[in-house]
Amino acid sequence: MIAGPSLSCYCLLFLFLLGDAGAEGSQKAAPEQIHLSYPGEAGCMTVTWTTWVPAASEVQFGLQLGGVLPLRAQGTSSLFVDGGLLRRKLYMHRVTLRGLLPGVHYVYRCGSAQGWSRRFRFRALQSGPNWSPRLAVFGDMGADNPQALPRLRRETQRGMYDVVLHVGDFAYNMDQDNARVGDTFMRMIEPVAASVPYMTCPGNHEERYNFSNYRARFSMPGDTEGLWYSWDLGPAHIISFSTEVYFYLHYGRHLIQKQFRWLERDLQKANNNRALRPWIITMGHRPMYCSNADLDDCTRHESKVRKGLSGGHYGLEDLFYKYGVDLQLWAHEHSYERLWPIYDYQVYNGSRESPYTNPRGPIHIITGSAGCEELLTPFNPFPRPWSAIRVKEYGFTRLHILNGTHLHVQQVSDDQDGKIVDDVWLVRPRQGRRTYL
Ligand SMILES: *[C@@H]1O[C@H](CO)[C@@H](O)[C@H](O)[C@H]1NC(C)=O
Ligand SMILES: *[C@@H]1O[C@H](CO)[C@@H](O)[C@H](O)[C@H]1NC(C)=O
Ligand SMILES: *[C@@H]1O[C@H](CO)[C@@H](O)[C@H](O)[C@H]1NC(C)=O
Ligand SMILES: [Fe+2]
């Protein structure tokens, strides 16, 4: 009499445990945190995702939304062990699709027989220099308070962007809570990043365990695990690099020199190719200049990114000026600021009426207001002669590279429901682009 009920309880409990274990087992091989990146080769796109157990890495793709996906691509997976106490294990899968037709919409799903993702859609990038890429650009977006994300998601789904540039500082921080914050963030950006290539550079918030979460989670062109790399997009050459090598010297001082030498070689090559791809655009997390009210590197006259380490070694301002970089994208300050064309604190307007037509120095834009738990950064109350506009509102930047001579920049305010709060054209002639000297 007494044993009856308790026995059925055990049975129920046993069935419950069995059922749960079974469900979790299959979920663990199901892809999550799916995102795209452009590997730098025409007709290609890389799909990256995470599973919790080892599994094969396959992408099935095709042109039709419904029905079978006739094309297949295989890739590889690697084990990432987070540096936190739990040493959590993530299996990172990478598959590169090849032979994509320029500008064509594809449908894909990723995974293996152990579990497939839902279907996503992306448009293969156009190839060659003669098209007009549209980019969304921002930095400093966290898993908490990602103000720009809903609008970015809507606009991405509407097909407004070809590429997203996230200029450092993700999740706040990807390593936190044994890298669960990184998982949460990567799931949050999936509706954007699984549909357009999500291109990155490292920021200070990625520093933990020698940038290991950053290196493991993203798949950027080249062989530096995304620390520095470059690629061509329409009429532009885009260079992504790490400002963090100047600040976390204990991970290796030699990285400053290594990156600097790579940058110089890359800029030389880009200049030799300038007839084809006239724009040179850089992205790095910590700016050389800013007029915020804090004690960051960019508020110092001799900022490390601008002038290099003491003694003036490996400063980037001279390098970027020498090779005629057109536009420098930065973040880190949680605000938006655009500078007049500048070199060494001197303004080099094209002319007083049209400062950005034939500018005689690079243009800097600091766009770090996508939203995070640290909120917005105030500005110094004293305006600087080199600062053109300052916006302390959440938002992100639109970059439309129309052709080899015209580039359009807009700042979208989320605080003002998508209002354009800055709008400028950069115009440079095709001839004489190599230097400003
Ligand atoms: C940090 O990572 C870089 C890039 O992979 C590597 O060259 C360097 O040796 C690492 N530093 C340490 C201290 O492990
Ligand atoms: C650059 O152009 C802007 C806009 O016309 C103007 O306000 C600023 O004073 C100019 N700066 C210099 C140094 O000519
Ligand atoms: C580049 O785009 C601008 C703005 O639309 C246009 O005025 C200009 O004629 C274009 N240049 C070429 C060479 O197509
Ligand atoms: Fe930062």
UniProtKB/TrEMBL annotation:
Residues 1-23 form the signal peptide. Gene3D superfamilies: 3.60.21.10, Purple acid phosphatase-like, N-terminal. It is an enzyme of class 3 (hydrolase). It comes from Vombatus ursinus. SUPFAM superfamilies: Metallo-dependent phosphatases, Purple acid phosphatase, N-terminal domain. Residues 361-422 form the Purple acid phosphatase C-terminal domain. The keyword Metal-binding does not apply. One of its GO terms (molecular function) is metal ion binding. This is Purple acid phosphatase. Belongs to the metallophosphoesterase superfamily. Purple acid phosphatase family. It catalyses: a phosphate monoester + H2O = an alcohol + phosphate. InterPro entries: Calcineurin-like_PHP, Metallo-depent_PP-like, MPP_PAP, PAPs_C, PAPs_N, Purple_acid_Pase-like_N.
